[in-house]
Amino acid sequence: MISSFKVKRISKRLLLLSAFIIGTAILWYTNNLVDDLRREERTKVNIWANATKQTTDIDNLNEDISFVFEVINHNKTIPVILVDDNGSILYHKNFPSKKANNIDYLKSQLEIMKESHEPIVFEYADGKYNKIYYKDSILLTRLKIFPYVILVVISLFIVTGYFAFSNSRKSEQNKVWAGMARETAHQIGTPLSSLMGWVTLLHDQGGNEEVVSEMNKDISRLQMITERFSKIGSQPELKNQDVNTIVQRSFYYMKDRSSSKINFKLDVSDHAMFCFLNTQLFGWVIENIMRNAIDALQGKGEIKVVVKDHSKNVIIDISDNGKGIKSSQLKTVFEPGYTTKLRGWGLGLSLVKRIVEDYHKGQVYILHSELGKGSTFRISLLKS
């Protein structure tokens, strides 16, 4: 079964491939059209050159050459310059009227024409030659630029559509998150209230105090989980709190409920470091990442949590020496639905990213991962 993030990745590649094929087809077709028009314009210039030669041919002076002048005057689009053997400009046509009498401008255009096309040379008298230089018409020049303009427009359309779709999808996901979280909190809350009543009854009837105490701890834990879910989808309240305290609480909670074969190490700063945090949600972040680390160890190994001061930020690194993450999956581990387990929805790390980046305006990412050697997740928070 193909996971959702793989489907999205394949869809993006197909979209880019389609855009590339369309762009290539447009460029290929337009370039062929431009080449055809360029050949046609050279043919027209040749005809124009022959007509010009006719006007200078002494043998034709007594003939009716009105059609020759008609051919010459018919060229209204292709800029041309007629020069003699010495390179002096004898005639020019189809230049802007304001610049047509500026000899420096004409000379600069002549140099451009020399680099653009081979001149058409004709003999107007024995041993005497004139040359006609020309450049692409305005229509042809615009046509050469046109496909690139189209590609830019298509690219802008694709980018705008992609971001609009992504934002729409993210907004829809936010609504789903909020709905699921509130419904989960409601579903847990109902039996939890009943369980609290039964524990109270058990205590009043003189039940085993140790059992009642442990049940109360689990009830408190369930209440915290319910509160966490209720905060997803709404803007949580952030308070200025010591990061070390929250990390230590979550660290020891996970340690006490894990295999004794896993070696847990905690390295926190010797001074308090304050950030604006929501205790329940940020504790959930630490527990989720540690839970993934525990799963990666498969019952045996080492987990190390380091909290350190870094300029204007507080850095939390959570490392394990487990199985590591494939390089092809590094960009998708925080996507909803990503999981390596046979059972589970793959929502843990996506929740982590949402809580850290959307609610706490921090960053969470994989600092390092290597197959067979383990991974390090890093959380960066701005100090208060």
Structure overview:
- With 384 residues, this protein is α+β, with helices and mostly antiparallel strands.
- The chain has three domains: 4-136, no CATH class; 141-218, no CATH class; 235-382, Histidine kinase-like ATPase, C-terminal domain (Heat Shock Protein 90), CATH 3.30.565.10.
- Helix content is 55%, strand content 18%.
- It has helices spanning 4-56, 66-74, 103-116, 138-204, 209-231, 243-256, 279-297, 348-359; strands at residues 80-83, 89-93, 120-125, 128-134, 239-242, 262-267, 274-277, 301-310, 313-320, 363-370, 374-382.
- The protein has a five-stranded mixed beta sheet with strand order 6-8-9-11-10. It has a four-stranded antiparallel beta sheet with strand order 2-1-4-3. The protein has a two-stranded antiparallel ribbon with strand order 5-7.
- It is rod-shaped.
- Mean pLDDT is 78; it is low at 60-69.
Radius of gyration, in angstroms, nearest whole number: 39 Å
What is the helix/strand order?
A: HHEEHEEHHEHEEHEEHEE
Provide the low-confidence segments as ranges: 60-69
The fraction of residues in strands falls at: 15-25%
CATH topology of the largest domain: Heat Shock Protein 90
Helicity level: 40-55%
Q: What overall form do the CA principal axes indicate?
A: rod-shaped
CATH superfamily label of the largest domain: Histidine kinase-like ATPase, C-terminal domain
- The CATH C-level name of the largest domain is Alpha Beta
The end-to-end distance, rounded to whole angstroms, is 45 Å
Number of domains: 3
Helix and strand composition category: alpha+beta
